[in-house]
Amino acid sequence: MASNIDFVQYVADQCAGAGQITAKKMFGDYGIYCDGKIFGLICDDRFYLKPTEAARPLLRSLDMQPPYEGAKPYFYIADVDDHDYLSTLVRETCNALPAPKPKKKN
User: Fold this and answer.
1) Cys-Cys link to 43, which of 20, 26, 29, 81 (CB 3.0-4.6 A)?
2) Where does the chain show beta strands of DSSP type E?
3) pTM for this one?
4) What pLDDT tens digit does each residue of the chain (106 aa) get?
5) Domain 5-96 has what CATH class?
6) Across the beta sheet with 46-49, what order do the strands follow?
């Protein structure tokens, strides 16, 4: 089951306090980015955050699940209605993630 674009936009809006949030369709679901850095996935209308030690202590509950079959576990974030909470989680996660590699020019 693919994600509903309205849900994807809602999650993006809720994370907007962390920076410029965009979502890109990937294999029927979505990757979600902050200032060009991928920090999570939205699969089957569920929000998954890349696991980092920076975000772990901020989580209201630790629930790790794979976003799709065969994937490594991510933090599953059930509470997507708290703008400040999501913005803080995304900001701390992105600060802990490495910068994206520059794209090779052909």
Assistant:
1) 29
2) 21-26, 29-34, 37-43, 46-49, 64-65, 74-77
3) 0.91
4) 678 999 999 999 999 999 999 999 988 899 999 999 999 999 999 999 999 999 999 999 999 999 999 999 999 999 999 999 999 999 999 999 988 777 777 6
5) alpha beta
6) 21-26, 29-34, 37-43, 46-49, 74-77, 64-65
